[in-house]
Amino acid sequence: MSRLIVVSNRVSPPTGGNANQGGLAVALASALRESDGIWFGWSGEEVERFTGEIDYQRNDGVATATIDLEPQDTDEYYNGYANRTLWPLFHYRIDLAEYERSFAGGYARVNSRFADTLRPLIEPDDLIWVHDYHLIPLGLALRRRECRNRMGFFLHIPWPPRRLLLTLPSHAALVKSLFAYDVIGFQTADSLDAFVDYVQGELGMFVGSDGIIHVAGRVVKLITCPIGIDAAGFRRAADDPAARAAHEAMLESANGRAMLIGVDRLDYSKGLEERFLAYERFLAAHPEKHEQVFLLQIAPPSRVEVNSYQEIRASLEAVSGRINGAYASAEWVPIRYVNQGYPRDELAAMYRAARIGLVTPLRDGMNLVAKEYVAAQDPDDPGVLILSRFAGAAEQLREALLVNPYSAEDVADAIAAALAMPREERIARWLPLMANVEREDVTWWMRRFIAELADMRRAVA
């Protein structure tokens, strides 16, 4: 078996018996153990001057190799180009995208530093799997360093439509750099179609119905490969004694009220303000439900150095405060808004206690919270998933109540329908949702992508 080298912006090494390890880390760790592979990336730490020194560790049988970056790298590559240029653009928010040459320069520099430090670790038969928008040019940088290995790239976020991508300076160079990979994976057919539209419309290239592109004497394959969760592990977490105790505590806290839950990183792409306003619309339209329901919104902060994230936090605090001020009573608060994260077993307990899971991003590559909510449910009395049509998960989870997150009335009507839904219909909707979550889990995703990569044979010019 070929050795696997996984490359990502940050490395998440396994943590032994920690039940709260993320599903992606669990799946990749398993593949890395099987192939005696390496997980390479940024440590998250900074040094005054970049040296290229690699920190090697082995955790629970998985080898990791990390490097430290300079403060300027963090500012320009991570906070800058990755999260102030590409992230908003790829999530259709060109009004928030910042195009600065220093950001683009830092992005190129860090990808070159990744390539310089990773290249000596690569052996001739290794398979290289690069992850996400931070490292789009890494494959080309490795090719320029005489790396002839099979390389795959997987994009975890959406790919934007052509008309939006055209706003990015040097958009053609960014897209062409992807042709250094042998396999390019997208979460959804929508993203793959947008990529094909750009390639054919702007670059004049032909993409076959099988996703094959012939470019510069090489063969590149485009695939849709939606990521899943560690479904079995998440169900175990939901059934763990500690989770059961947390579930009972959550039900006691609810005091007989129906709970709606949202769990999202604090990000403008998640549609949190729109969600709050839709919930407010529901409260206004259904006064009989006052004091019978509440929304628990868990939103841990992220990217606090970026101004747009500071602004969204301030806005959400203002909106939730206004709604609570308008509707709360001495015994009831309509919104419980929490700015912290929780371990996986506690989240599983909260999901199971929730009558409704609200997953309403304005745009999302996949959104695994939707799948986690499904996996945590009691098969005999499951809750209802309300899911944005613009989350990648909507292509798979079609039995959810699909909504337009931009329409407060649409989401409010879905909340009312979910609360009124009889048990038989809730079970009938949940069964195919759970079947998909179990069938196309994170291990299925990983094995499918690696199999595509292993099967590719690069054409010779």
Can you offer a commentary on this structure?
It is a single chain. This protein is an alpha/beta fold. It folds into two domains: 4-228 and 442-455, Glycogen Phosphorylase B (Rossmann fold, 3-Layer(aba) Sandwich), CATH 3.40.50; 232-439, Rossmann fold, CATH 3.40.50. Helix content is 44%, strand content 18%. The protein has 16 helices and 15 strands. It has helices at residues 23-35, 71-90, 101-118, 138-143, 162-165, 171-177, 189-202, 231-239, 241-254, 272-285, 307-327, 344-353, 368-376, 408-420, 423-439, 442-455, and strands spanning 4-10, 38-46, 55-59, 62-69, 127-131, 150-154, 183-186, 212-215, 218-224, 258-263, 293-298, 335-338, 356-359, 384-388, 401-403. The strands form two sheets. It has a nine-stranded mixed sheet, sandwiched between helices. Helix 13 (368-376) links the parallel strand 13 and strand 14 (384-388). The chain is globular, with a radius of gyration of 23 Å. The model has no long low-confidence stretch (mean pLDDT 93).
What's this entry about, in short?
The protein is of the alpha/beta class and about 450 residues long.
Fill in the keyword field for this structure:
single chain; 461 residues; alpha/beta; Rossmann fold; 9-stranded mixed β-sheet; 6-stranded parallel β-sheet; 15 strands
